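Task: sequence design from structure.
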């Protein structure tokens, strides 16, 4: 890659100089990058004053103790740069893109032919099209993609194009593997497109913000779950039920997901992570956690309720924790005796093996809510029999076969069957806060992302205990 950023740097440095009340002679700077090592400097600003610590391979990397007396900058690479310090300085400039920030008189977010920067006072936003389109491209995203249904995931690179105004780009640190990733890989739901990049339980940090992205900051720890975009103008979006928006786009449907070094989503769905949450385990909360937390909220479950959870997998083991901390009497339904002890540790007061004959009989008329997380047909009449009057069977597991529901099983006792898709942004936030407050986290197994196929096989085999998390092992 060979990029000349002289126009960009001249403009940026002059602006930066102006912002930090120092003079800036136009044309005084040239940053060039090429296949070999190089340095960047300008008249009056010798390299020594910048304390640069590296500029390499079509990439630049600077770290300066002082620049314009009050600022330094660092991390400029590949026609990319970012720089940062306390004041009059900047961070994040990459690929004909730039962002920079600091204390005051500084800036954040210049990228893709677009610049925006912000300092809280007298700041600048949305500097658009300062630079030519040659410089406006974000760099390539590296991912793992399958080229056909049930195919192996292979390294795959794609150009994400310009960042849309409402979009946010996240550097993926960790990504959980949900069973829905497997179902989408296999095209079980008939809506997969290939190349297919799975991954919708992302934990990472924001590296770029579109100029209309709200409430988020570069460098912020965030999570992204199943949904990546919604219209923001339909009755559902306007009433806070964004996950019910008819045009909601899923992170892995018609988009490339989080088995990648970076992923993009509309700002609405990029949720800040509370400090108390461990980034390595936060991803699975975003889809799996939200999906089993939402039914407690939307069904108005009281703390005195008796709650059953069917299937102690990725979703189910988090459901046990939520229901327990909610205050409920918690029943785990599993086909695996080997999970009984752990199910109790997650919060189950009772564990039932559904493979045993008459396992449901002792529970007749007892449960207020049954949350089903399995994706295979089950004994619906038997389950309705375990519900107390006004009880509810709530389905989140994606069973493809139609359910055989006996009308009388609903009528007597005024029982209900319902389902729900993940949760709204507000529900995600509530779930994250609840998790942080009560120390709720998935039990995880970790694989480097480069061993993604092994990780998928382990989930497919039913051996995972209880959620697999991929760790980004691409070198920056
Ligand atoms: N509604 C939504 O928005 C939403 C969101 C996320 C996921 N999902 C769906 O929820 C389902 C669960 O996802 P997950 O990630 O939790 O999957 P998972 O980690 O694979 O867990 C599924 C659990 O189902 C049980 N199970 C598996 N095969 C079974 C069988 N033949 N009979 C009875 N139980 C069986 C197992 O629990 P035991 O060993 O305890 O029996 C297993 O651990 C999937 O269908 C997924 O697509 C839906
Ligand atoms: Zn999921
Ligand atoms: Zn909408």
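Answer:
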């Amino acid at each position: 890659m060979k990029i000349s950023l002289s126009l960009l740097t001249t403009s940026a440095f002059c602006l930066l100089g102006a912002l930090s009340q120092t003079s800036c002679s136009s044309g005084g700077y040239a940053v060039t990058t090429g296949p070999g090592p190089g340095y960047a400097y300008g008249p009056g600003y010798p390299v020594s004053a910048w304390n640069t610590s590296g500029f390499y391979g079509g990439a630049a990397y600077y770290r300066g103790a002082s620049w314009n007396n009050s600022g330094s900058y660092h991390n400029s690479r590949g026609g990319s740069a970012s720089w940062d310090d306390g004041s009059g300085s900047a961070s994040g400039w990459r690929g004909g893109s730039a962002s920079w920030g600091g204390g005051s008189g500084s800036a954040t977010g210049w990228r893709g032919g677009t610049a925006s920067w912000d300092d809280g006072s007298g700041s600048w936003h949305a500097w658009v099209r300062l630079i030519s389109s040659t410089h406006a491209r974000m760099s390539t995203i590296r991912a793992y993609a399958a080229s056909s249904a049930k195919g192996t995931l292979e390294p795959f690179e794609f150009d994400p194009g310009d960042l849309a105004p409402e979009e946010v780009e996240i550097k993926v640190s960790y990504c959980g593997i949900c069973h829905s990733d497997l179902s989408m890989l296999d095209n079980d739901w008939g809506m997969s497109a290939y190349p297919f990049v799975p991954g919708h339980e992302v934990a990472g940090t924001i590296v770029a913000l579109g100029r209309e992205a709200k409430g988020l900051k570069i460098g912020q720890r965030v999570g992204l779950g199943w949904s990546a975009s919604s219209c923001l103008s339909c009755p559902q979006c306007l009433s806070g039920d964004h996950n019910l928006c008819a045009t909601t786009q899923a992170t892995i449907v018609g988009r490339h997901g989080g088995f990648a070094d970076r992923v993009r989503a509309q700002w609405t769905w990029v949720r800040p992570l509370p400090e108390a949450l461990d980034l390595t385990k936060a991803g699975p909360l975003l889809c799996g956690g939200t999906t089993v937390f939402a039914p407690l909220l939307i069904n108005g479950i009281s703390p005195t309720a008796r709650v059953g959870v069917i299937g102690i997998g990725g979703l189910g083991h988090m459901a046990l924790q939520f229901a327990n901390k909610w205050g409920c009497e918690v029943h785990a339904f599993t086909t695996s005796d080997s999970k009984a002890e752990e199910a109790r540790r997650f919060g189950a007061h009772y564990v039932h093996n559904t493979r045993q004959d008459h396992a449901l009989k002792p529970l007749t008329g007892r449960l207020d809510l049954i949350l089903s997380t399995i994706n295979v047909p089950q004994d619906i009449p038997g389950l309705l029999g375990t519900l107390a009057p006004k009880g509810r069977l709530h389905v989140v597991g994606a069973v493809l076969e139609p359910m055989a529901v006996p009308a009388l099983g609903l009528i007597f006792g005024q029982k209900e069957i319902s389902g729900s898709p993940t949760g709204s942004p507000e529900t995600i936030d509530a779930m994250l806060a609840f998790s942080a407050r009560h120390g709720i986290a998935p039990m995880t197994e970790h694989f480097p992302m480069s061993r993604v196929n092994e990780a998928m096989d382990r989930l497919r085999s039913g051996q995972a205990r209880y959620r697999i998390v991929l760790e980004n092992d691409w070198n920056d």
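The mean pLDDT is 78.
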